[in-house]
Each structure stands twice: as structure tokens, then as C-alpha cells.
């Protein structure tokens, strides 16, 4: 499972999103970086999991195996020696008792000496055996429990990390969900515009000239006269109206042909009469570089009209007038209509859920517009009556604004406004849009102020109508701003049009408090060092944690490090609006062993720092391979030689910034107690104390051989 998760994290880390367009929005940047954040999160969890598995071996299994081999195994060797010496002593004693008293005195004395020697060896073996049994029985009380305690510490440290990561992840998750929702809204808006563009392109004739653009380009066929006849050669032509330059690139060029691109300067353009040539859609041009006329053939009649119009041909074709209400003007009647719509919405529909997002009936919208813009009695419609519902009024307002002959924010400033919205610097965005608003014509700026003030009022009731500035930007971005040309590239900029409207709503007070000091847009400043919203949101920008051998860092040092660092690794503070940053964790290192007063018990509900330090010492002796003399801990209990520095702490990263729990604690990590505080002493429940009695001091074991038989668990009954 862990291996599969790590492979999945590697896939997320290497995944790259592809985006259409030259610039990403803030939300798209967050989405593009989200998989890397997920990968780092999974990697950290699995790294800690692998450490926990490793600690199970280092902290639990190996210490218990070492205790069994070194302590219990040594006791078994003592038992064998005791049994061997006992058998040898009693065998010699039996032989000694069968000696005849008639033997020589010297022989009897020698036999007595041998028996005394064996008795001494037997007593020495029995003492060593009993001493070893007692040492094992006493030391296993801590030598067995401490490895289990250390492993549980490792296990709960891993579990605590997952809790901390969850606390870090929740703010990031909420911010990313907002980015996903905003991007989905932009997608829906752009998709509607693209579908409309696709529909118009299917219905309209194929054109090669963009409205408002001075250049026309496309394929034309040129009549070439040769000695053996006439042929038509296909060229790709580009005409620049201001310079009257025509570039012609041959498309059917044969290998080895010397003919290349032609650069010509146009003198005149005349439509070719149909009865004068056997080809359709032809027109003649004259250039400075060539004598005579050049006959060109367009791809269709509509295409020929576009070429002749661009070249100022003698027969320009006027465009067919559009039906009523497909183009309207920004005049007094229009201002009256907008004000009446705003008053109606704010009077009876400002708290309606989805106001401006819900679409009204197209028949009712046309009926309202025809009635209001009737040339006989313009503006003679009461929108406060019950004849018109809110959906019809809001849809009519959007229809009017969208079908103005020129959008409220004008074609002229469209490109500059989009470039301002694409800037990564938030201060520049606001300053540039502020300046560009005051470059609008007076009536356009007045209309824009009227509309944005209304949208601010609507957004103030977002709890009821669920319409935030971002949602309003999606609705009114294409309405107040639109590109002059209908292209896919222009449609991909709709999301930046939405951002412009969103900025106008959020900063309405500042923008319309007065023009900036300099009405020109400020230059783009260098990238800001501090964290801004244009940088991707992160789960946290925590530094990599070191893995110290001892709990040696002081509280003051860790606190100083925390206050000197920002989420992006520097001490500067960001300016302006920022998204909510994930809370950062910080775990205080445990105090050094012996740092508190000797003998002071731990405070209520908190572990003794000395006990944590003892647990941390558990596996330091593992690489040593031998038994070291046992030392005494601060509480007077003989410390096991197996207690040394924990590999868990040697492998764990440095403490990371954290979330404060209740006062004085960080996520359950005890706050070091000052020497002046008096702790509350609590003890675990124990059995009732024994009645007081006088216990005689036991004699030394050497003086009481009879104690040997009562203490040694496996001593022969003959003793």
C-alpha cells in the first residue's frame, strides 16, 4: 500500500497541466500547482509511515531480543554452572562421607580441604545464580516496558502528524474549492460564448477580415499570362491598408522554380465585370512595381467584397443593416431604461436567489424592450408593476448592455484593460484599472459607475441571493467588455474581462472616490518579494524539519525562529488582499534531561520530561554490541543499559510551525515549567498501602546460606 501511494505521489508530482492562452488567472495557477501539493502531502505521510515501521524494529523488536540474549541467556549459563558445581560438590561429599576413619590423618585432612574447596565453589555459583535471577527479575520491569513505551511514542507521533496535516489541509482545501468553482464558472461563461461564435461562423459566409483590423489576408488566384496560354496560380495574400502593401506568396510553387514572394504597393482596385472574363469573383488591381493590371480571383462573392472594401475598391459594398435591438445606442433613453431596471431590482428583487443569473423568457424580454424603446413614446413603461417579473427585467438590462453598438468600456480600452487584469502584481492591477476607468468617455464612465454601484448593492445581499463579486464578474464581464473581433483567442480572454468587473466591484469606493494623480497607467513594477495572491496557494510553506539527536533546542530559540520566518521563508509582510493562509504548526522540543529541578514531579496531565528523555535514550546502545554498566536515573531507579537516544528522534524532521491549543500548550506538547511554579502532584491509582510495620534488615547473603535455597527458583531441593 505504501509503495503504491508513493508511486501515485510521483505521478502527481510529474503531471503537467496544459492551458490555452498566454496568461493564467490566479485560480488557474492554484489548480496547476495543486497536484504538487498533493504529492508532497502523500510523500510526507508515507515517509512518516516508513519511519514508524523502522522504529518498530529499532525501538521494540531489537531491544527485546537483546534483553533475551544478554540477560536471560546469561542467567541460563549461570544456572548450568550452578547445577554442574552442585552435582560435583554433592558427589564429592558422598565419597568423603564414606572414607574410613582408619585412614591416615594426612589423607583425611587433604579430603577435608577438597570438600571445603568444592563447597566454596558451590556457594559462589549459587550466589552468582541467585544474584543474576534477581537482576533479571528487577531490570525487566523497565527493560521490557520501555521499548513498548518507545514504540507507542513512535506510533502516536505518526498519528499526531496525520492530525496536524489534516489541520493544515482544511484551509487549503477550502481555498482550492473556491478556485475550482471560479474556474468552473469562467468555463461555463466561455463555453456559451464559444458556442455562440461557432453558430455565427456556421451561418455567416467565410470571411478573412477581422472587424477593426487593418489587415486582410487569405487565398487569391492570380491570372498569369504565358507564351502558351493563361494559367491561374494560387497565392496567399496579405494586405496592409495603411501602407497599401500587398504581399503575395505562391502556394503551388514547383521545385526549382525561381519565383518567390512578391511585395507590391497598391495603386487602385476595380471590380472586374462578369461579362469581361470567364471566371467569377474577379477584380483588377494596379501596382507601382508592375505595369498593367493584375487580375485576382477571390473565393466567393462575399470574399471579393471584403478584399475590395479593404483596398478601397471603386464599388464598396455596404453591410446589411441589422434588425431592431441588435444594435442600440447609449443615449438618454438608454440611461432612463438602466435606472428604471436598477430601481426595480433593488426594490423588489435584490434578495432573489440567483438574481441576474436566472434567465427570463425571450418573448417577454423582446416585449419589454419594444415597449420601452418605442419611438412614439420612449420610456413609457412602469417596471414596478406586476406585469414584469425580476427575471425579465434583469435579462432585458443585460440584453440592452450587450447589444450596444460599442460596449460600455469601449473597444479602444479593451486591450489595455485585459493586459491590466493579466498582471501578476495586484497593486498594478488596481492602479491600472483605476486609471483606465477615467479614460472612458464621460457618458460611458457615468453608466459604468451607475451599474457597478448597483452590483455592489446586490453583492451586499450575497447571503440571500448567493451572488458574490466573482459571480457578478462572470455575468457582466462579457456584457460590459467585449472584443471587437470574434475569435477563439478573444473568447479565451473572457475570464480576464470577468476579473476586471470583479475588481471594479470589490474596489468601487477607491476607484470612484476620484481620479488617480496620474491618469496614465503606472508602469509594471518588478515582481514582489512578499507572498501575494498571484502565487499559488499551498498547504504550508514549512521548512524541512531537521532530525536532531537530542531534544536540545530551547523554547526561546524555537520561538525566535518562528517569529523570524514567514510562510515563504522571509521576514517581509505582504501588502494588500491575500487569500487565507494555512495555519502553521510548531512543536516545542522537550527540555534537556536534568533541566528541571531534581526530584520535581511532573505537572498534572503532562508527562515527566525526564521520562521522555529516558524513552528517547532507548536505542543508543544498539550499535555498540555490548552491555554497558547500568547507571542511575534521576529518580534513583537503575536505568537499563539499553536506554539511549531514540532513532525516532534522530530521524524526525525539525519541529514545524504549529497550531496553538489551549493556553500554554501546542497540540498536546507540554510547555516547559519555570522553576518558580509549583506543580500539582497526581499519582495513578494504586492498591491500598500496607499497614505500617517494622521490617528487619536482612543479613548479608553470604552469612545466610539457607536463603539461597529459598531464593533460587530452579535450585535442587537437596540444597
UniProtKB/TrEMBL annotation:
Top-rank taxon:
Eukaryota
Spell out the Basic and acidic residues composition-biased ranges.
594-615, 662-680
- Name the SUPFAM superfamilies on file: BAR/IMD domain-like (SSF103657), GTPase activation domain, GAP (SSF48350), PH domain-like (SSF50729)
Q: What is this protein called?
A: Oligophrenin-1
- InterPro entries according to UniProt: AH/BAR_dom_sf, BAR_dom, GRAF_fam, PH-like_dom_sf, PH_domain, PH_GRAF, Rho_GTPase_activation_prot, RhoGAP_dom
PROSITE patterns in the cross-refs: PH_DOMAIN (PS50003), RHOGAP (PS50238)
**What does the UniProt keyword field contain?**
Cell projection, Cytoplasm, Endocytosis, GTPase activation, Neurogenesis, Synapse
Q: Which organism is it from?
A: Cochlearius cochlearius (Boat-billed heron)
One short Pfam name that applies is RhoGAP
Q: Tell me, how does this one assemble?
A: Interacts with HOMER1. Interacts with AMPA receptor complexes. Interacts with SH3GL2 (endophilin-A1). Interacts (via C-terminus) with NR1D1.
- Gene designation per UniProt: Ophn1
Source species taxonomy:
Eukaryota, Metazoa, Chordata, Craniata, Vertebrata
